[in-house]
Design brief:
0% strand; 83 residues; mainly alpha; 2 helices; 76% helix
């Protein structure tokens, strides 16, 4: 009798698995620029509202930090799941 696991694909392989991997890589590519832009935009709005000039830079730095955190979490999930 043939083994029942023959002919079955490994979970996460195939076309759908490749699309999921590509989506994860796109998230990695957009995390830091997106975080920086959003942080800078919100910081510049806060600059205008509070009549300060340093909040935009702080928003930019916080956005970059948020982007790095997002990259680390996506990478950890990808490493845990395996290639």
């Amino acid at each position: 009798m043939a083994d029942s696991t023959e002919g079955k694909q490994k979970k996460g392989s195939g076309a759908l698995g490749d699309l999921v991997k590509a989506e994860s890589m796109i998230q990695l590519a957009l995390a830091i620029p997106g975080g920086c832009l959003i942080g800078w935009f919100l910081g510049s709005l806060a600059d205008r509202y509070f009549h300060q000039s340093w909040i935009g830079i702080a928003g930019l730095v916080l956005g970059a930090i948020a982007g790095f955190i997002q990259i680390f979490t996506i990478s950890a999930r990808f490493i845990k799941r395996g290639p």
